[in-house]
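Task: sequence design from structure.
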């Protein structure tokens, strides 16, 4: 039961009771016309009736609730009309508003989920009743991301997983019974085609064309320190650099919500020390941060880095800073154990294997592991063929000249090859992994 009450100089409200003879509750409307007040009275009565009977809102009522201003929606929630069974069948638009309001995440994470939100609204519409979205609809949405939006498999995977996360909250809030995205195949989240190894020669060429020492250090910290750019790089303070002990304390904003993972300590690698010493010599007295000039939010590091690479005569590679960080981790793995390297880089062995590790020269490594030299002969020959002879060329890769030689190499395990950025200006190679079809 609901009725309109006019009080104090034309202000209106709707009073209602959830049960006959129950305690009345109020929803203030402000100064509205009698017609508008009656519309609210009818809609509020419908919401109360749906809650009492445990049934979903009809499409008309659901659309009306979704289009309410945020201020009025808050008043309904305060009166207990926007939670529970009555709004368990709310619209997609209202659910997404509530989900983003309930999740305090970092700006970049908000942007990430915002892309999924945009895709959901574009496909289903703001007024689509949330519980009407079925697993079949979720499958069609995923197919739409591939066929119509032409997103890469890795991007599609991330969007599906983001939608799955959102609907888990809808289940917890009892807005839906089941998660329609729970069993939707997300696919592989990494994109091997965008993972390349960046050689030190290329990095040195880029640093040589950097506009100043700060930019040189931004590049060096990503490639030689393995820092996330810009988040970890921009938080580095001079007090974090211990010149005598040879360590750098890196603040990790990405993992600060996890106990003990808000920072890590990495070695002050020799390749990095040179550039940091130069930057220290140029720093102003009392400077706090290593990177000072480029800390402003208006600086677009990616665009500027692409300019630097073009001046250096290098074609920009995919995921500019991520691949610098991944190249450092790959490089360190060739000299140190995996756990130690992951502690320095700040990820897990699983993540390192899936998203960072690449092969620098699989053919050369294969020959070295098999004890083969450049001409395909082993370091120890058969009896009667000069056994025990030392070959100084062991472990060196050789490119076959003929098609027969190339086929023979593939038959011996030297599989199809992919490019790696090197200083020569030509394309080096590393072998494609088994999972890359």
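Answer:
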């Amino acid at each position: 039961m609901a009725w309109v009450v006019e009080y104090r100089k034309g202000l209106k409200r709707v009073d209602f009771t959830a049960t006959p003879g129950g305690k009345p509750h109020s929803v203030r409307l402000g100064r509205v016309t009698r017609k508008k007040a009656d519309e609210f009275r009818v809609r509020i009565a419908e919401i109360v009736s749906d809650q009492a009977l445990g049934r979903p809102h009809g499409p008309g009522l659901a659309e009306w609730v979704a289009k309410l201003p945020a201020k009025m929606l808050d008043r309904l929630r305060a009166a207990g009309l926007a939670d529970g069974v009555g709004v368990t069948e709310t619209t997609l638009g209202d659910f997404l508003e509530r989900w983003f309001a309930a999740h305090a995440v970092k700006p970049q994470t908000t942007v990430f989920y915002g892309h999924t939100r945009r895709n959901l609204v574009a496909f289903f519409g703001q007024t689509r009743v949330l519980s009407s979205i079925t697993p079949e609809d979720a499958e069609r949405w995923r197919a739409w991301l591939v066929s119509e939006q032409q997103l890469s498999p890795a991007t599609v995977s991330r969007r599906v997983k983001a939608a799955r996360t959102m609907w888990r909250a809808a289940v917890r809030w009892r807005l839906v019974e089941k998660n329609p995205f729970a069993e939707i195949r997300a696919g592989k989240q990494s994109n091997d085609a965008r993972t390349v190894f960046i050689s030190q020669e290329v990095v040195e060429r880029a640093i040589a064309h950097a506009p100043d020492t700060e930019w040189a250090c931004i590049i060096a910290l990503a490639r030689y320190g393995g820092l996330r750019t810009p988040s970890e790089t921009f938080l580095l303070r001079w007090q974090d650099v211990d010149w005598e002990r040879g360590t750098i304390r890196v603040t990790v904003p990405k993992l600060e919500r996890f106990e003990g993972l808000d920072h890590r300590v990495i070695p002050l690698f020799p390749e990095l020390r040179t550039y940091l010493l130069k930057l220290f010599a140029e720093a102003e007295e009392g400077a706090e941060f290593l990177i000072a000039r480029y800390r402003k939010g208006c600086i677009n590091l990616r665009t500027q880095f692409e300019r630097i690479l073009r001046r250096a005569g290098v074609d920009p590679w995919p995921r500019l800073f991520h691949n610098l960080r991944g190249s450092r981790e790959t490089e360190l793995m060739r000299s140190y154990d995996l756990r130690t390297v992951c502690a320095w880089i700040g990820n897990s062995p699983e993540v390192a294997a899936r998203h960072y590790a690449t092969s620098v020269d699989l053919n050369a490594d294969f020959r070295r592991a098999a004890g083969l030299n450049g001409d395909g002969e082993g370091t120890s020959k058969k009896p009667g063929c000069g056994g025990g002879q030392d070959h100084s060329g062991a472990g060196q890769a050789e490119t076959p000249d003929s098609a027969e030689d190339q086929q023979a190499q593939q038959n011996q395990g030297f599989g199809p090859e992919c490019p790696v950025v090197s200083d020569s200006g030509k394309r080096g190679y590393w072998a494609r992994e088994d999972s890359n079809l």
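The longest helix spans residues 34-53.
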